[in-house]
Fold:
Amino acid sequence: MNKKWYPCELHCHTLHSDGDFTVEELISTAKERSLCGICLTDHNTMSGHRETEGEKELKILKGIEWTTYFGHMLVLDTKSYVDWRDATPDNIDSKISAVREQGGLVGIAHPFQIGTPICTGGHWDFKVQKWENVNYMEIFAEGEPYLNDANYKARKKWHSLLSEGYRITPTMGRDWHRSRNNLYPSACTYLLIDGDITAEKMKDAIKYGKTTVSNGALLTFETARGETSGDTVEGGEITLKISIDLSHHKEMEAERQITPEKILLCSSKGEMEFPVGESISFTAREKEWYSLELWGSFDDKENTLLCLSAPFYTK
Amino acid sequence: MKILLKKSITVTPENEKTNIFLPFVVEDSLKRLEIDYSYSPKELLDEEKNIRLVKENLERDGFEDTGDYSEFIPLKNLITLSLDSPEGYVGAAHRQAANQHHEISEEFASVGFDRVKITAGEWVLALNLHAVVTDECNCEIEVRGYE
Ligand SMILES: [Zn+2]
Ligand SMILES: [Zn+2]
Structure:
């Protein structure tokens, strides 16, 4: 077992929809950012995938962003195409089921973005009933890796779904369309992968909740048994070994400093605060979810959310 | 060259968030399709209506109304085009341009569309009405087939 957290960008566009990147430029820019994998998710088309075939170094998980009239839904790696055009607020569960039957993953993009007509379909208005079929949700959306209003609402919605028992993976989406005006170059979703990264393993990491949503800082944790995000552990006394890694951020952006200040342990019952240190210990309730957050300052932004982990669960 | 589809369609805000499917028939021996598509107007010029629609949009989606609408105005119509062959979905041109030209063949396809054989049978061009903010919007479509 040689598990590693790989920085990835899970939401990308090119000239095949409304991005400014050619596929080649997207790939080279992703490599400049030291990313190890991307999801190519152009609006309503998969035609960009043909241009990724020769790329061996950067791993590319093939997707599409269903850019519907009632929400934008990320769909990854289906065996055959499922149509986005007839999705409505009331039939979305069956559309999502159809994607899952084709082996695809379903993610909610920027759920609280503004919608039509300013940003058509950008606000999630679908009436999902079967949340168990939704794999992931963007918490840091539209490339803004902090709790702006929309991201705050996304985190709150996500917490309430976790508390209802749904295991939804959190992600960051840069919604990457072009190189220019990209602040926060080190912000990304980290995926926990055993051995070398492949597109298939990226998909599994998203499916099984092995993610960390990061503004550049990476907080990771494990129990004495090596359990972490996505795992189901015994309740009771738990000590988590904590590790904080700022190396990717420093490589991308030395001038803006990240200073971790506290760790929050979030669950259905609220938050517990811990100082930044090598470990945290607490009594875990049964049938609970626990997500770790790292808070601190980012450049001149004080007391901001730096990093958020996909939860681990208790039996 | 053969004209396979030629349509002029006027849509209104009532048609927003729907698709208009326009079937056309491809007979044997075609190698390539060309699509010319345009719609007009692109932008909403009525200042008062712009502000009214922006205010409604902000309120509906829970955004603060700061009174400064400059980043949203003028609002735009967005009517994209997507295409199906008898074999399935070929792609879409999801972008803001209101004048578009596309080519589809087995060897070459414009961005947004897969490279596919121009199979004989029923093809469908769809207009996807993401936003219709003007009282009327006129869409012009022409699909040509080449041997
Ligand atoms: Zn989107
Ligand atoms: Zn997007």
